[in-house]
Write a structure and sequence with these properties.
- There is one protein chain.
- The chain is 68% helix and 8% strand.
- By secondary structure, it is mainly alpha-helical.
- It has a single domain, classed as Up-down Bundle (Four Helix Bundle (Hemerythrin (Met), subunit A)).
- A two-stranded antiparallel sheet has the order 1-2.
- Strand 1 and strand 2 form a beta hairpin.
- It is globular and about 40 Å long.
Length: 160
């Protein structure tokens, strides 16, 4: 049952995201401009409100399987080693982080409350990585990267 709810939540998240990316054309003084609602989406992704939802294991860290820990360590390494001077650099980082995230998803064997809390941590990170791969400005990409770094760094506060 939890998997069904998770799948529905993920689909709702993706469909809401697509709706927010619609472009809006405005004509002002005879000049047509396109306004993209990406700034609001980035602000929402960067707020790290998931921290209010995640729980500890009665004050202790959750036990994560080795592959999950390895995948998160690889994310940390990807962030540390990938330069981010251009949008192309940020897109390369997003691609590497997406590969790292896929490794975590494919190799996670966690069950129960630890698994549920992993998803509280992971789902917002997935959205941030996807948004980074679509960032339109260096400013937006930088804000997303900062939020991703905070997300990844928080992992060790909840899992071991």
């Amino acid at each position: 049952m939890k998997h069904v709810i998770l799948a529905i939540s993920l689909l709702a998240f993706v469909s809401c995201k697509d709706r927010n990316n619609k472009e809006k054309t405005i004509e002002k003084d005879g000049i047509e401009t396109t306004e993209i609602h990406q700034k609001e989406e980035i602000k929402n992704l960067s707020d790290n409100s998931w921290i209010k939802e995640i729980k500890t294991n009665n004050g202790s860290k959750w036990k994560a399987n080795t592959a999950t820990n390895d995948g998160v360590q690889q994310m940390e390494k990807s962030i540390e080693t990938q330069t981010t001077n251009t949008l192309e650099d940020y897109y390369a980082l997003a691609k590497q982080l997406s590969d790292d995230k896929d490794f975590v998803l494919k190799n996670c064997t966690m069950k129960g409350a630890s698994h549920d809390n992993l998803h509280v941590w992971l789902l917002p990170l997935m959205g941030k990585i996807e948004a980074l791969s679509e960032a339109k400005t260096l400013e937006d990409a930088s804000k997303l990267k900062q939020s991703i770094v905070k997300n990844v760094n928080e992992y060790t506060n909840y899992f071991e």
